[in-house]
Amino acid sequence: MTRSPDISRRDARRIALAAQGFTDRRPTGRVDRRHFRRVLERVATVQLDSVNVLTRSHELVFFARLGPYDRRALERWLWDSREVFEYWGHEASLHPVERHPLLRWRMAGEHPWDGIRRSARDNPEMVAAALAEIAARGPVSIGELEVNRAAPRREASWWGWGDAKRVVEHLFHAGEVTATRRNGFTRYYVLPERWFPPEVLALPTPDPDEARRELLLLAARAHGVGTARDLADYYRIGVREAVPLLEGLVAGGALERVRVEGWSSPAYLHPAAVRPRRRLRCRALLSPFDSLIWARERTERLFDFRYRIEIYVPAPKRVHGYYVLPFLLDERLVARVDLKADRRAGVLRVRAAWGEPAAAAATEGGCDRVVTELAAELALLAGWLGLDGGVAVEPRGDLAAPLAAAVA
Predict the structure, then answer these.
(1) What pTM was computed for the model?
(2) Which of 33, 289, 296, 312 has its CB surrounded by the most CB atoms within 10 Å?
(3) Least confident of 86-100, 105-119, 203-217, 218-232
(4) Are 234 and 272 in contact (CB under 8 A)?
């Protein structure tokens, strides 16, 4: 006889949404760094991305959970408060400074990219010169470094990275320099001792397996419930490394192994996970790099929502659009919209709008409510971005016509 699952798919969805902060009410008053701290503590790490067709991805992560806030206040907190640092977690990511010791095992290893390893190995004098210059002048951007200006431009990568940029990225990965952001999104490199509080740098470096255990626990808390692959991916830990560590956490009572309806792999439940019993009331537009959905296979398991970002797909071959944000309503991903901030015209352009009929049908109020709530969230987003011309819906996608009418 087949044993019934410990957690239904519906409850797994609710646990995940609660863990990611979507069951918290958005603030009704002024949003300040206390709210920013709460979001970062909830999600554990926030991925950064350079695409700016709408606004920076990390800003959208905070907007999805807090609603409108002063973007300059977030910028000041992230890049001036010294409470947060950037390092490789789930790609380039934001972390609370006290987590620095948990990532030192990664700093002690080699960079995963061949080109950066090769440039650092073949140019030891350039490595030393870059470090010395950052020590003397930092915070300093790559464009301001004399070592970069003097470096030959041959062998630049398709990103335009020459040896000097690769060498500085080697130093960043090794933890010999850290970075803040200025002038929009440019990295400015600086020595760690000029950024991190002394008490953080003085913290002991944990054993690599102990550090990975702690990161897996953070991932489990941010997921609520997840498979070994889900939890390992949160901080880009190898699954083979993660499984024995997770089993050790189960044996020690820090996690519970469970079965989730429809999941082929066993899952791990964090003991602090909230298990909401009532239907959730959520509403958010999600960045493509939001931690709720960045693991695409998990997104399909939780929401029956197949999502692929198409930024690097040639325009004629795109299915849904260039920068597509899923729309979360209550407990489901019910639509997706391709968005662009037309700053010159002062308009938020919906280049395409697509519905998820099955998800809409399962949502209270059906498609009519999906359209109404989406129009309201888009208007909120446009106002937050300072696009005073409001929302303009272009005629592409099965949801475009009713959304245009609702926006009008």
Answers:
(1) 0.95
(2) 289
(3) 105-119
(4) no
> How many angstroms separate the first and last alpha carbons of the chain?
56
Give the HSE-up count for residue 188: Cα atoms under 13 Å, Cβ half-sphere.
Answer: 14
H helix or E strand, kind and range, residue 181: strand 178-182
Going by their DSSP bridges, the two strands 391-393 and 347-355 should be labelled as parallel
Identify the H or E element spanning 377.
Answer: helix 366-384
Q: What are phi and psi of 227, to 5 degrees?
A: -75, 170
Report the sign of the C-alpha dihedral through residues 351, 300, 229, 64, in that order: positive
The three-state DSSP-derived secondary structure of 22-80 is: CCCCCCCCCCCHHHHHHHHHHHCCEECCCCCCCCCHHHHHHHHHHCCCCHHHHHHHHHH
Residue 159's pLDDT is 52
Q: Which residue is associated with the tokens 């991925």?
A: 47
Contact partners, residue 162, CB within 8 Å, separation at least 6: 148, 151, 152, 153, 154, 155, 156
Give the amino acid at 226: G
